[in-house]
Amino acid sequence: MSEVAFLGLGVMGYPMAGHLKAHGHGVVVYNRTAAKAQKWVAEHGGASAPSPREAARGREFVFACVGNDDDLRAVALGPEGAFAGMKPGAVFVDHTTASADVARELHREASRLGFSFVDAPVSGGEAGARSGALTVMCGGDEAAYARAEPVIASYARACRLMGGVGAGQLTKMVNQLCIAGLVQGLAEGLHFAARAGLDRQLVIDVISKGAAQSWQMDNRHKTMIAGKFDFGFAVDWMRKDLAICLAEARRNGARLPVAALVDQFYADVQAMGGGRWDTSSLIARLEKQGRA
Fold it and tell me: Is the pTM of this model over 0.85?
């Protein structure tokens, strides 16, 4: 078993760190709001630290799952950042959905300091984090990945090295691009079915057995039909992710017309007050416009 630190106890990080402890690893946690770290320790055991540097000190692995590029730099760099406390030969594993640029930046700094960096964004949402069934897509050195993968397995059902540093983040961008188009298609299909006078549940019961089936259809159609969105992956976070995708596309020349359009649809949802709604709330935008 390994001695690890976990930085960031949000809706994903909190249960992920819990799985590490449950699998027998020695875990020290850090969270910007100390009360949440104390709550985690009371629930799972282990220990908390007052700074990322102290959490990382002497640890073999340091995991992070925070909000964005700037949050990641804040916990990794600077005099109180994790990099200042990490020992040579350790591995920093970043589960944040961030840019490939920040992954490369932190990899360079980690290499200079004598330890490894693996970018490892996850898919599966809060439910996947709680059940320990996340999909993890990684970028980095093969040797560092090989060391980290058995520890990541504490909360993952699938984990794969996609290439060099940044490849994990680029793969996560593909994931988010595919989801954006699927959710919009599902929203339009359900909206169309209602306007056509069809029983939407019966429609889903039939088409989910064929080529239209998707995770979004299986897991979100009921709440979309009911107009309930106060859960799940927030629109604000999806717009953050799509902004990363669109910025990367401007650099590599990829054409993403549907993603750019869906991003603007999510901006409409934010304007409706739905920034914290689940991404399936795209249907609320269609139904609001249909009533106008």
Answer: yes
Contact 9, 2 (CB under 8 A): no
Q: Which domain holds residue 176?
A: 170-291
Residue 290 to residue 287: CA distance in whole angstroms: 5
Alpha helices in the chain (DSSP H): 13-22, 34-44, 52-56, 69-76, 100-113, 125-131, 142-152, 167-195, 200-207, 215-226, 235-252, 257-271, 282-291
Tens of pLDDT, residue by residue over 265-290, are: 999 999 999 999 999 999 999 999 86
Mean pLDDT for the chain overall: 97
Phi and psi based region of residue 22 (left: phi greater than 0; alpha: psi -120 to 50; beta: remaining): alpha
**Active site (annotated) includes residue 39:** no
Same domain for 150 and 182:
no
Among residues 39, 87, 172, 209, the one annotated as catalytic is 172
Q: Is the CB of residue 259 less than 8 Å from the CB of residue 181? A: yes
pLDDT at 291 over 80: no
Give CA–CA dist 198/190, Å, rounded: 9
At what angle are helices 282-291 and 167-195 packed, to 10 degrees?
30
As for how many domains the chain has, the answer is: 2
Q: Which residues of 55-86 are buried (b: 16+ CB within 10 A; e: fewer)?
A: bbbebbbbbbbbbbbebbbbbbbeeebbbbbb
Same-domain check for residues 137 and 227: no
The domain that holds 64 is classified in CATH as 3.40.50.720
Predicted confidence (pLDDT) per residue in 205-224, tens digit: 999 999 999 999 999 999 99
Determine the distance from the C-alpha atom of residue 82 to the mean position of all C-alpha atoms in its chain, rounded to a whole number.
20
Q: Are residues 157 and 196 in the same domain?
A: no
The letter for the amino acid at 18 is G
Query: What pLDDT does 263 receive?
Result: 98
